[in-house]
Amino acid sequence: MTMLAHSLPPAVPSVVDRARTAFGALLVLARDHGRLDQVLVMTQAINAGTVARAVQRFSETDEGRRLFAERPRIDRAHVDFDALRRLPDGTLGREYTRFLDDNGISPDAFEELPAVGDERAALIMLRMRQTHDLWHVLTGYAPDVRGELLLQAFMYAQVRIPSALVLVAFGTLRWMKLERAYFAALRRAYRRGLAASFLPTFRWEEHWETPVDDLRERLACPA
After folding, report:
1. What is the residue range of 69's domain?
2. Handedness of CA 111, 208, 199, 150 (dihedral sign)
3. For the chain, how many structural domains are there in total?
């Protein structure tokens, strides 16, 4: 029997161990906000408990069980990105590859399952990492500091991952001007996340040819 077949929740490291790891990553990030590897270290440590609960949630839905069974990937080994570039302007595939190209982002940045001791939890974490830029495309949030913080607020409303809340608080205090317009945008991002359909189990790869505007309407996430 594979790890995907059992229903027991994955084991979670102690709170002390997770806090120590997360705090160390935050210290590195405070010195150099370009250290994206430390963002991953921090989020993996902080989100362990939430991901464990997500395993149970996914296991109770058809979409989640399908994700565990089929293990979809969005990287060069599984997606023809050149074919996506040839799709009409405005389609999900074309706008996704345009986003990657314009921002110098590689779709292969995350290929390996995280070593978290449970394959189902690892699949959820990999899925969230590999679809992160698709969330950017859908929401329209830019891949700069402000856009990332707004997307984190959106994500927190969707999945209640603690790291999103930490990043919003830390990033706001560290890099943002505390202006009324920014906080209004942050509130709107959170409300958009609450109103939108549940995105972690959405099968993006089945909608490459769908116009982004149509997806926004379908997923209750207007621009």
Report:
1. 47-218
2. positive
3. 1
Burial 143-173 (b: 16+ CB within 10 A, else e): beebbbbbbbbbbbbbbebbbbebbbebbbe
Handedness of CA 77, 78, 79, 82 (dihedral sign): positive
Lowest average pLDDT, out of 53-57, 74-78, 135-139, goes to 53-57
Q: Which of 63, 48, 68 lies closest to 7 in space, CA to CA?
A: 68
pTM: 0.81
Q: Domain for residue 26, yes or no?
A: no
Tell me, rounded to whole angstroms, the distance of Cα 51 from its chain centroid. Answer: 12
Within-domain flag for 160: yes
Q: How far is CA 29 from CA 10, 51, 176, 211, in A?
A: 28, 23, 15, 36
